[in-house]
Amino acid sequence: MSFSALGISENYIKALKELKIIKPSPIQEEAIPFLLTNGTDFIAQAPTGTGKTAAYGLPLLARIDPKSPKVQALILTPTRELGQQVAKQLFKFTKYTDKIFTEAVYGGAKIEQQIAALRRPTQIIVATPGRLIDLLQKKALDLDTVKTIILDEADEMLSMGFKKELTRILKQATAKHDTWLFSATMPPEIKTIIKEYMKPTAHRVTIGTDKVNKKIKHQFIVIDQSEKLNMLLHFLRQMGNDRGMIFCRTKASAKSLVEELKAKGLSAEAIHGDLLQKERDKIMRAFKKETLQFLIATDIAARGIDVKDLAFVAHYEQPDQVEYYVHRSGRTARAGQEGLSLSFVTKDELKQLNYLQDKLKIVIEKVRI
Ligand code: ADP
Ligand code: MG
């Protein structure tokens, strides 16, 4: 199957080629032809890293009238990073087509600047739910002309506590729009949103019964708490030039771990809730440009991040929730590549690991380093 067979026009295909997006992924094969030809609600579940952005982005762009300066679509994302990533992808897709103006708005940046930006013609708004509510209250935009609302990474938006904001936004929008929901997992809260705010006729697509991307190799090491840091250092030194992310449960442990790694001369930085947007952007830029090798993150700070060619994800501390494991490991093995998800666990934590295996129907293999 090719993008052209799915109904995507040549100008888009040319830009996709430059992004090395040649062969549609399964979710793209399902979503694109349907969304291009049907005006209805759509619910898609597909594992992390399988190209959901293009799956909704390409049909969305085809729906936009470039001659009208009005806001025609709204994409909601859980974090500013993801919002920026989505806006950037859409911009790249339209390299050879009529210009379509996308604006990303999110908390942690000056709202006045965003209000000014929205006065220019803007056809697609990418927003985090909280900031969108603020902008609506300030009457910086209205949703009356919006024909498509996309809930991207819906599970993450809910697990980050955006349910109130989401329902408020969905209530305000006119009933004339279509809602497209994309998610890696379908926790009960999403089902509630679907029931209350989406059409009963919504078309549903599920890719893979597994939540976890098959290209991820899951492994664990059993280690005493007192030896954990040394073991991590040992593992990281074996990585050569390979890049990866290391997950901690709290800001405090992320902060102290990054100090330890830096003290040992490793190329590491941490992202967590206490960073200023500027600092965070700087770290993310370095990580994407590959001048930074190891990124330490908390679960919340890492939502939706898409960085190419990550060789591994290390769980230095076990995740609080099963879904977190899915999202953490989903940072590796993206775009058809392979990746390692390695858990550092103490004997007491083995039970948790078994629970993960059961719940996610994966095999986590024991290794020694
Ligand atoms: P998801 O939202 O499902 O987690 P993304 O949309 O962020 O995944 O895509 C993950 C990565 O895969 C991105 O870097 C994207 O450019 C790339 N990608 C998307 N579709 C394809 C494709 N058909 N072939 C190769 N790479 C792709
Ligand atoms: Mg995504």
Task: Walk me through what this model shows.
The chain is α/β, with parallel strands linked by helices and 369 residues long. It folds into 2 domains: 3-206, P-loop containing nucleotide triphosphate hydrolases (Rossmann fold), CATH 3.40.50; 216-366, Rossmann fold, CATH 3.40.50. The chain is 39% helix and 17% strand. It has helices at residues 10-18, 26-37, 52-63, 80-93, 111-119, 129-137, 154-159, 163-172, 188-197, 228-237, 251-263, 277-288, 322-329, 350-360; strands spanning 42-45, 73-76, 102-105, 124-127, 148-151, 178-183, 203-206, 216-222, 244-248, 268-271, 294-298, 312-315, 339-345, 365-366. It has a 7-stranded parallel β-sheet with strand order 3-4-2-5-6-1-7, with helices on both faces. A 7-stranded parallel β-sheet has the order 10-11-9-12-13-8-14, sandwiched between helices. Strand 3, helix 5 and strand 4 form a beta-alpha-beta unit. The mean pLDDT is 91.
Summarize the structure.
This protein has 369 residues and is α/β, with parallel strands linked by helices.
Secondary-structure class: alpha/beta
Number of helix segments? 14
Total count of strands:
14
CATH topology of the largest domain: Rossmann fold
* Radius of gyration from the alpha-carbon trace, in angstroms: 21 Å
Distance between the termini: 42 Å
Q: Compounds present?
A: adenosine-5'-diphosphate, magnesium ion
Strand line-up across the major sheet: 3-4-2-5-6-1-7
Q: Please trace the helix and strand order, writing H or E for each element.
A: HHEHEHEHEHEHHEHEEHEHEHEEHEHE
Number of individual domains: 2
| Global geometry | globular
What is the correct CATH architecture of the largest domain? 3-Layer(aba) Sandwich
Strand content: 15-25%
CATH homologous superfamily of the largest domain? P-loop containing nucleotide triphosphate hydrolases
**How would a crystallographer describe the biggest sheet?**
7 strands, parallel
What would the average pLDDT be, to the nearest integer?
A: 91
